[in-house]
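Two proteins were folded this term; both appear here.
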Amino acid sequence: MKKSSLGFWTVLSLVVGNMIGAGIFMLPSSLAAYGSLSLIGWGITVVGVILIALVFAKLSSVLPTAGGPYAYCRSGFGDFIGFQIAWTYWLSLWIGSAGTIAGTIGYLSFFFPEIATSGSLSLFLGVGITWGLTFIQLISLQAAGLFQILTTILKISPLLLLVVFGIPHVNMENFTVFNPSDTSNLMAIINVCILTMWAFVGLESGTVPAENIENPKRVIPRATVVGTLIVAGIYMVVSALIIGLVPNDVLQTSPTPFVIAAKTVFGPSGALFVAVAAIVAAVGSLNGIFMLQAQVPLAAARDGLFPQHFAKTTKNGVPAFGLVVTASLITVALFMNQSKSLVEIFKFMITLATLSVLITYLFSVLSELMLFLERPDKFKRRDLLGALALSVPAFLYILFAMIGSGKEVMMWGAFLFFASTPLYVLVRWQNRK
């Protein structure tokens, strides 16, 4: 396989496909507790992620190297922070995958209701999805890329159809339920921001496999910004539509909100169509995430910051060891959460994964300023003003979003972040030996 095998459309589908997954199909239920106030949180999140996307676009044009956030943070802050970001980003990917799989199984329960009540059956399906997608990745990067384009097209189409035909069925009274939660409006918006941020995790996807992309300095920035704008537009319209179509009390308890909305608009056949689309969206998103999960440890291992087994690839350039290890960890996560409901698993997993990825975004945003100071030859002098105009508000937004993760998730996030330090010492000792 040629190294430069991914073009603009594949990278764009990777960016869009990784963001549009089970998140948008499951989030309306998680956000229903905050009523129409959630739309304000969506707006704040859209502004924040566009700023972050512009930062990644600039970084990818300056450093078009494999690893994405890891590569930028290592260049800006050195080996230790680079290792921590590789570790944290890797955690966010496979933990988020476990949450996305829970969302996928939730929509499968539309066809087989017993799935929602049978922990062993849902576990069996989750493990099957995990290893089935891993097998696709093991074939080749090109096969995974083609699968990504196909699923991206299939998942966007029903969303657009629902918007076009659903507007006449909107009940404006549903928007009068502003904030039914027990929290203040400010805290509700903060909580919404951490949940909605999950829907945009993946905007950096195009930066990770940079060495496999044709003309990365041009393709990655374009695909990152265009993909983020496309997804932001879809999310805002679709989220408002679901609130208008489904009563708030129903929305809060349903694991399949889009099915209810589609049934209102198209009848039983429409519900069936959207349920299939939700499953395709989730699987497509998982395929894209799986494509990235082994790329970050691969880049870190090549730099001597991860165990060297992660640097090994097959003759097709596939990091098989990283894929198998990651799939095994997802399987363990699914076993550990077997006793919880699908909605509980989804909400906890995505919040923890979002916190983890926000940490990587935080250091990535600051890396642009560090690179300007440490490697001024890579920038033009006027770039400093632009870097400040993007990095400072993006940094403030990320801190704002992190507050909404809650004490329990913050505790787990801090534990996982610092638990990596002994591994760093071990890897450095092995390299020295």
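Next, the second protein.
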Amino acid sequence: MDIDNGTIRAARLAMGGVAHKPWCLTAVEKALVGKPATEASFEQAAQLAMQGAKGFKDNAFKLKLAPATLTEALKHAAGIV
């Protein structure tokens, strides 16, 4: 993430371990640009990342784990943890 004066200027995101290959989050990257680097912004981004996600019998737990993990990763990247 590129953050200037608390505002996200650019972000590059991908999730691994949730599909058969890394999942690029280009819509989420675009949605973050111009937003404040806050936990609330990161939680919204995590929810956007999960839109349309479907779980299966043995991996449905990832539908709760992934947004929480993404929010924490963004907080760390922004240095607010």
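Residues 2-78 form a domain with the Enolase-like; domain 1 fold (CATH 3.30.390.50). The chain has one domain: 2-78. These notes refer to the second protein only.
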